[in-house]
Design goal:
187 residues, two-stranded antiparallel ribbon, 7 helices
Length: 187
């Protein structure tokens, strides 16, 4: 029987090793590294463990095994979920107000990308990061996290998502990277 873990809202849920695996892959870790981390974390999970503790274990291992994926995870948290993740994996949620994003400030509402203009602003931030010497691998991982955020958001209409993906791909091509291809049509 799988252990029951305590979610952020206090509900109990069966631990799902596949969720850990998918989260690592979505952050940009290789399938091999993601599988290793998922297995390792699964071996340490016990009844009553909080998902925040599991998250911290995953991030710690990602930092060791796939640092760019850990950075992309934190970037995704910031730009999509409206929360700031600290070095030790703890995070704070910024529900309302203003959030400093690299070299710009963003008004924060509910989590999730909601417009192509938000994506455009994030791409401007990534361009500035390039100019300020952030490593190419890091920027590449962050574009993947942004792409995943666009795919997962429920707040953006299909047409906006397609335009946002087009902008992300233009950014990638400009920097000599292959554009992302959709594996299945958007819903």
């Amino acid at each position: 029987m799988k252990p029951k873990v305590v979610k952020m809202d206090g509900r109990l849920e069966e631990f799902d090793e596949e969720k850990v695996y998918r989260s690592c892959v979505s952050a940009g870790a290789s399938e091999e590294v993601a599988r290793e981390i998922a297995r390792e974390v699964a071996s340490k999970v016990r009844d009553g463990m909080r998902t925040s503790e599991i998250r911290r274990m995953v991030l710690r291992r990602l930092r060791e095994r796939a640092p760019d994926a850990a950075d992309a995870w934190e970037f995704y948290d910031r730009v999509v979920k409206g929360r700031i993740t600290f070095e030790d994996g703890k995070f704070i949620v910024v529900e309302k107000g203003r959030l400093y994003l690299g070299r710009q400030v963003k008004d924060v509402g509910k989590p999730g990308l909601s417009s192509v203009e938000e994506v455009r602003g994030i791409l401007r931030e990534l361009e500035e990061d390039f100019e300020h010497g952030v490593p190419v691998r890091t920027i590449n991982a962050r574009t993947f996290a942004l792409f995943m955020g666009v795919l997962k958001t429920k707040k953006m209409p299909k047409e906006e998502k397609l335009k946002a993906i087009e902008l992300i791909n233009e950014f990638r091509v400009k920097h000599g990277w292959k554009p992302y291809e959709l594996k299945r049509p958007l819903e």
